[in-house]
Amino acid sequence: MRFHLKIFVTMASAIVGISVIFVLLTHLIVSRSIEAVIQEARGSEVSHLASGLADYYFSHNQSWEEIGPADLPLSDNQDSSSILVMNNQNQVILKQGDLPMKLVTSLGVKKSILVQGKSAGYFYYYDSEIANFNKILIGIPISVVIVISVSGLLLLLIALIIAYQLSKWLASPLRELLPSIERLGQGELGVQADVKAQDEYGRIASAFNQMSTELQKAEKLRSNMSADIAHELRTPLTIIGGTLDELQQRNEPVPPEMLLPLQDELIRLNRLVEELRTLSIAEAGQLQLNKVLTDMGDLAKQLCTALEPIADEKDIEIHLEVLTQQTNLLVDPNRIRQVLLNMLTNAIRYTPNQGDVWFRMLNRDDQMLTMIVEDNGIGIAAEHLPHLFDRFYRTDEARSRERGGSGLGLAIAKQYIVSHQGTIKVESLENQGTRFTIQLPYA
Fold first, then answer.
1. Is pLDDT of 282 > 90?
2. CA pair distance 56, 70, nearest whole angstrom
3. Residue 340 binned pLDDT confidence (cut-offs 50, 70, 90)
4. What topology does CATH give the domain 292-441?
5. Read out DSSP for 13-28?
6. Which strands make up the sheet holding 82-86, listed edge to edge?
7. Paired sense of beta strands 82-86 and 118-126, if any
8. All structural domains of the chain with their residue ranges
9. Separation between Cα atoms, residue 292 and residue 314, nearest integer Å
């Protein structure tokens, strides 16, 4: 069943149900009102008659035998009344008046005869006034039901027409969204739904459009990654293949120095494959972390000391500033060391001679330790910043293949930080420098 028909059936069922309940409640209220009027008019006489019959039944050994019209406790104004007394077996044991039984039972008042809490029978009490009330009791509810039913059917028809149109209106944004969903399912990534609504349907369409765009970006990244992997592998394989061909053509003993380039390329290949494997495991959330309580201040000092010779070659000064006493974190020290080493190495690499690199450690709140690696180097263009942590992504200047590595370092660094429930972000201005900010939670 189509969506708008489901809405219509639901609304129609609700309208019909409400109409039926309204008619039944109207009938019940009118009936109870007339019964209350009858009780007010003849309630005391009927109760007195029921009490007298109960006394007779009890005083005659709980038997109706020998009961006659003279045993009825009637008042003077009840002599013209018709009374029909029946036992529990629905047998008539006393009848007063000449009216037909059917008339008395249909228009009279029925009253049970109770003796010590048990039913001894019942009787019908009928007079002209009671008959008129009962005629009203029967006629008015029927009239009311007929009037309400006729007007209700007209209103119901109008309501159903409105419900049908409303259901189509509610389903119209989905009908506009459905072709786009089908196109996306057929592989047309990036397709956008033209839904302008500002309500929940608009939010659904907006979410769909964003999902479609993200899928297109993911597919583009996948294609680029495949091309990048092929390119990264082609270079060392070409070198290895060319060197081996040259050695074969020489047809002479191979000197050790000829094997060194092959070994370098094999090391590069192994490093690339291992980085890809590590990144895939981290992105899948399967990275194994050996967390121990680590003093990040001591770790920072060790890294800065280890990198001083490289910095000295370019006359770059590394400034370490530990501005908090709370430097102990529960982390995998090897993973975090690799992240910080990547940050500091990049800062030194892309900072000109006689520049500066700052490594700051501070505590902005009691939840996270903040580590900042900042330089005054060449910086990164704004259009490159959103993609800086993508696989194999390189900027034209700051991360060219000639000056950089495989293009996986920052992607791996981000996954290591995410695996520690931390965050990493980058800010940069061209020719002014770059700042990486890392936040890691305390244990």
1. no
2. 11
3. very high
4. Heat Shock Protein 90 (3.30.565)
5. HHHHHHHHHHHHHHHH
6. 92-96, 82-86, 118-126, 109-115
7. antiparallel
8. 3-149, 200-283, 292-441
9. 35
